[in-house]
Amino acid sequence: MTDSGTIRPLxxxxxxxxxxxxxxxxxxxxxxEGEEALRSRHRAxxxxxFVLLCEGAFGGYLLALPYPLGRCPDLRLLxxxxxxxxxxxxxxLVIAERLRGRGLAPRMLRHLEEAxxxxxxxxxxxxxxxxxxxxxxxxxxxxxxxxxxxxSYGPAAVYMTRELNGSG
Length: 168
Ligand SMILES: CC(C)(COP(=O)(O)OP(=O)(O)OC[C@H]1O[C@@H](n2cnc3c(N)ncnc32)[C@H](O)[C@@H]1OP(=O)(O)O)[C@@H](O)C(=O)NCCC(=O)NCCS
Hints:
Blueprint: E1 6-9, H1 15-26, H2 35-44, E2 49-54, E3 57-66, E4 87-95, H3 104-118, E5 123-128, H4 133-138, E6 142-143, E7 158-163
Parallel strand pairs: 4-5
Antiparallel strand pairs: 1-2, 2-3, 3-4, 5-7, 6-7
The chain binds coenzyme A.
């Protein structure tokens, strides 16, 4: 039977795996932020950052933090903790290479959205990179036109949002 894994909050002992996977996922496209920046996103909202454990090992991570609608972290800057607000920004989601194609990213997303609803967030946002806009559309995110993005995301990035209490 396929192991759909366990999701739990990110802990100090996970950082080695998180940083290595992030580098493998983003270095080639110039989008890797590095450990200090990743840790600053986590510090801003530890209760909305998770790791996936699958087949007895680290299998991926997700970092999310509150951000006003229409804004997002700059990949080149450390996070400054601001007021919480009601929008939960999914900053980064990476599944380990060996586990891709099994629906684990949607599973982690559902986990985050449930935690977000419970914590009182009303909307969720993200920046689609690496041509993932189609995947996010299928997961109920819609493009929010006219949202300026930091240059650090590159020209192909797309800002998307969804209501957490509706279907779209
Ligand atoms: C993108 C990523 C998180 C997807 O994780 P995954 O668990 O392998 O996701 P799955 O392949 O199970 O895909 C789930 C669904 O999205 C679709 N999908 C996956 N990648 C896609 C893409 N790049 N474009 C369009 N659809 C995509 C799948 O076909 C699947 O659809 P289905 O349920 O209709 O079959 C993973 O490939 C990854 O970690 N990539 C590197 C980091 C990255 O780019 N993260 C996203 C940043 S916005």
